[in-house]
Description:
The structure holds two protein chains of two kinds.
Chain A: E1 7-10, E2 13-16, E3 21-23, E4 31-33, E5 48-51, H1 53-63, E6 73-74, E7 80-83, E8 86-92, E9 100-106, E10 109-113, E11 135-140, H2 152-165, E12 171-174, H3 180-190, E13 197-199, H4 204-212, E14 220-222, E15 235-238, E16 255-259, H5 266-271, E17 276-278, H6 286-296, E18 300-306, H7 308-317, E19 322-324
Parallel strand pairs in A: 3-4, 4-5, 5-6, 10-11, 11-18, 12-15, 12-16, 13-14, 13-15, 16-17, 18-19
Antiparallel strand pairs in A: 1-2, 2-3, 7-8, 8-9, 9-10
Chain B: H1 2-13, H2 17-30, H3 35-43, H4 54-62, H5 67-77, H6 80-87, H7 115-124, H8 137-145, H9 152-160, H10 165-176, H11 185-196, H12 200-207, H13 215-221, E1 240-241, E2 243-244, E3 255-261, E4 264-271, E5 274-279, H14 290-295, E6 300-308, H15 320-323, H16 334-339, E7 342-352, E8 355-356, H17 362-372, E9 381-383, H18 392-401, E10 407-414, E11 422-423, E12 428-432, E13 436-447, E14 456-464, E15 470-476, H19 482-494, E16 496-500, E17 503-506, E18 511-516, E19 518-521, E20 529-532, E21 535-540, H20 551-555
Parallel strand pairs in B: 1-11, 2-12, 7-9
Antiparallel strand pairs in B: 3-10, 4-5, 4-6, 6-7, 7-8, 10-12, 13-14, 13-17, 13-18, 14-15, 16-17, 18-21, 19-20
Amino acid sequence: xxxxxxxxxxxxxxxxxxxxxxxxxxxxxxxxxxxxxxxxxxxxxxxxxxxxxxxxxxxxxxxxxxxxxxxxxxxxxxxxxxxxxxxxxxxxxxxxxxxxxxxxxxxxxxxxxxxxxxxxxxxxxxxxxxxxxxxxxxxxxxxxxxxxxxxxxxxxxxxxxxxxxxxxxxxxxxxxxxxxxxxxxxxxxxxxxxxxxxxxxxxxxxxxxxxxxxxxxxxxxxxxxxxxxxxxxxxxxxxxxxxxxxxxxxxxxxxxxxxxxxxxxxxxxxxxxxxxxxxxxxxxxxxxxxxxxxxxxxxxxxxxxxxxxxxxxxxxxxxxxxxxxxxxxxxxxxxx
Amino acid sequence: xxxxxxxxxxxxxxxxxxxxxxxxxxxxxxxxxxxxxxxxxxxxxxxxxxxxxxxxxxxxxxxxxxxxxxxxxxxxxxxxxxxxxxxxxxxxxxxxxxxxxxxxxxxxxxxxxxxxxxxxxxxxxxxxxxxxxxxxxxxxxxxxxxxxxxxxxxxxxxxxxxxxxxxxxxxxxxxxxxxxxxxxxxxxxxxxxxxxxxxxxxxxxxxxxxxxxxxxxxxxxxxxxxxxxxxxxxxxxxxxxxxxxxxxxxxxxxxxxxxxxxxxxxxxxxxxxxxxxxxxxxxxxxxxxxxxxxxxxxxxxxxxxxxxxxxxxxxxxxxxxxxxxxxxxxxxxxxxxxxxxxxxxxxxxxxxxxxxxxxxxxxxxxxxxxxxxxxxxxxxxxxxxxxxxxxxxxxxxxxxxxxxxxxxxxxxxxxxxxxxxxxxxxxxxxxxxxxxxxxxxxxxxxxxxxxxxxxxxxxxxxxxxxxxxxxxxxxxxxxxxxxxxxxxxxxxxxxxxxxxxxxxxxxxxxxxxxxxxxxxxxxxxxxxxxxxxxxxxxxxxxxxxxxxxxxxxxxxxxx
Lengths: 336, 559
């Protein structure tokens, strides 16, 4: 199978030739369309960036307005632009705030790049929409049938039960700073947890950005401004890197939790010294990945970053045309 | 099964011993018989289902899941039971309202489970304590026990179909063994004692005499029945243990002195026509030492040190290193029996000819012991001799001079003391040989567990080779104070030169004085050396790394 002459997969991103534009390039380019704000998709240093307003806001916050692209263009879901005969449009991916699938239409052909996506409900972002296409370029972070995320409310209930079970301790949840942290907080609110949630300083600005975009996270407090005793019987959120770090010594005998799809596998959780694994992911699980391919029903599926082999094998078993794209610099370990 | 699956899951992720204990206590108190007994047996690896093996599970999965997807998944997960538990096809979870998700892609060659299995299962499931339709631990044990090799796939299918992923994991771990939740038999017994507020010594004693699911034990624990009668059983008696001697001067008129041999402490019990060997934790190790079981033909219970006869020592006891070849085996080959012949040096006599001697003073037991040992085969049993010295000072000299590889130190036993379980103040003392020490250089550090998870508390250290290269000689994670730990942690963080996953390599500048009980030749390490019980005795900030000890110096200490 040859790649499309107008869309070239390169190790550092997808190049749309007629438009002279890259999608999620991992190094600085002249023109980049970006699916969402995670660092492995949204790099700094592009001259101009095409993305949703939320993704641009996230990039501006992370890289600083001057560091981020000089000529940015924002598109709401459903909107888009045309360049070099290619029509680009943005559609919800359900991954994090502002995350989008990018649809490209050229010479009668439709190609969708999902970026990262999930199918289940998330109070912090718009839900994934099925966009019919000829070529479906899908992620495969959890492209093995062992990955089945349980219902999110069950995991949140587990977290709340753990806090209530030991009122002298805090529960420290490792959650990626963009997306996962805000989703966990929003899901907690949905489950009736109204107490302040204590956060690591590294989460502060992103939570504020979500709030500015209308995501109600309720009362938040900084760990650095709290007394140790106040955090007993409370939920604390921090980036995964802080879990076993010296930083956690300021918490009252914390129970270490982690919110990630990888927590499905016991040894993965143990390796990270996690006591309370919470299988909460912003990526599609196996059932979602396979069902989505069936629903979109493309002529071809191109599979990127993750367990390409597993999803490729599934396509083979179901007589679906598929190929693996090997993109570099996609680091799912932390944010999945 | 739900409660048991939840218990296993919590135990896997819980690192602290006390928290593990609390979890088991809670489970034992709130779970009915016989489920809790079977669960306890599963946790302590006391169950065996010969008809169900890992191969059975793999073959079964191959009828349900594409083999390539299973292989890829197994590779990622790293454990057959867990892979199978996660992969077992079940209805996909709906992720959007209304419409089902459709194919999950796992039905390759699948189809509904054979009707026979379903029927069979409904027969083996009496009303379960887990609520309607739930599968209890007892149901699972009953089904697995009744299984033959030919119907194992059907039986497993029936069971797996009734469980969720966590339940399937618990079931498969129970069926295949290898629970690996960090629960020793000792911890399980302590949990039992704590759950029902009974003496750990009693639990130790009764545990081995009552088979799973231990209903008589629970009945006694809950005060519903009298203590079970153990007459004529080869049950385990909890060991009497010693305190370390720390500066006290001992009057040898009150205490008898005896060598402390460097093997493993064992108890051999004979009763009801059976002989059993127990290790210090009360675990039965008879299978590893069949020659001793065969040779012990007297109605008695002895306490002694299991040693291996080393050829180099002219038939005398060899070092602990040689004994290690025989430990932890479920079966032994003829060659092992010939190369590392085991024998027991007998310390004490706890019962003989149906009479319990534990209440007698040591002098009384010793007299009977000396009369008893000749009844045993001299090839496999000898008497631990007393050390005849005039006074304590002479004993100290003798101890300092003892360089026999099989001697760990000296034991001092109060002459008028009965044989009592555990460590009682003033009755027995162990007086180990002074540790050896070496100045080593810290090379790598790793984070600790539990309370120490945020500290770099496990250190690998090395000594200099002839070629001027630093070679690792050991690893230690104890011996320092909390303040020293903080200092060491900071040293590691500020002197890191490389990272390998959880391990940090440090600048080779810090000298640690390491104490250890003995040092042996080892093929496992590049330095060719392995230390026994290494611990950090001092941080030598004053000493330059170049002046740390050389490998050759350590080689001279090898026993």
